[in-house]
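Team,

Forwarding the record for the chain on the shared tracking sheet. I've put the sequence and predicted structure together so nobody has to dig through attachments.
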Amino acid sequence: MKGLSLLALIDCNSFYCNCERIFRPELKDKPVVVLSNNDGCAVSRTPEAKALGIGMGAPYFQIKSLCDKHEVHIFSSNFSLYTDISRRVMNILKSFSPFVEVYSVDEAFIDLSGIDNPLAYAQKIKEEIARRAKIPVAIGIAPTKVLAKVACRIAKKDPQHKGVFGFQEARDFDPYLSQIKVSNLWGVAKGRSLSLKLHGIHHAKDFRDFSNHHLIQKILTKVGRQIQDELRGISCFPLTLEHEKKKEMMSSRTFGRGVFEKRALQESIASHASSVAAQLRLQNSLCYEVLVYVRTNPYKEGIIQYAASHVLRFQRPQNNTFALIKLALKALEKIWTPGLEYKKSGVRVRQLQDEHEYQLSLFEQENSHSEVSKEAKQYKEEMLMKVMDHINHREGKRTLFSLACGTDHHTWKMRRDFNSPRYTTSWYELPSCNSKSLRKESKYSKKYGRPYKT
């Protein structure tokens, strides 16, 4: 593969589960499952849990008896831990290549062009991540992103490759593409794969060699043609080192239990508004529109069903937490209906503008005395937001927050019955150790030149 343009996909295996295992080494080789928000369904499973028949997305109430029977270790989602471990993995990758595209919390593409022995180099990356971050990964190497995805899938499924696999030459693709189902291709959704199968396209090789380009474009749009070219070794999706700014942002949650009180619903909306405001500032954006929505539980029988949303607009775009909370609560007033059991709320911001390039309103007055005082007030608010973001980043989320968000979330917070500590992001939840045992181990190691074993 020397001399070729090469990409590598690094995919963390059962990422959420293995993050939990870092601080619980006794769980090695034991079945582990991490649940989604509100402990709803399985979103991460170890191979041991998969072998028991626990499927991705399986509702917890359906697999609870199976988990109890086989002593499966269950965890609620701990995203503060997972994002921090992800950051550490990505930083390790940046020490191996200057060109890293963080694709998701557990996946990244890196450029390996010019590496003499990319397979050996990838094996070194895998070992370094395991040593420093304690996370097992699979690595697929190929000239394009789609083929790298295929290679990574082979590296995961076939133990003989030891977690690393790469396509050497173009002719090497065929035997593997003949075995990969079209539904497993990157960018081909399950529904679209059914349409492809109706035209005799069952495997990746069939898809690559299908000559009716117009039909492919009709089913999968232009992206389908690009996936075909990527399977032929022609790069259509280059590394993206700078992510595009989001055009919309949203924060929403399903409540752990039904909410009847207006105050609790207001607190949840204020919390969502605070969250999207922080996201806006993180990408240096402002928003014109704020959409607030609420709904009852559509799966619960015997209650009045209700779902509503309302949009309000700023005259001048904002990313100030307090301004967003004020407008969001005003929107909530328009859709609040008493006597209902609410199950979910959310805030979405739209029509985003760059912080330094937004369009002024025709009704704003320039160079007036009132405008000068407005600018001074705006500057103070910006400084307040910067200080607030800095403290929350350093000390943890919700260290500083608006009182409108409430101080007691028991009425509307998520259900997290199996939550693990925030080992790496909270001073109050750091793992503890016995210093006496550490001193004993240190003395033993110095005397005998080998680790102490109990």
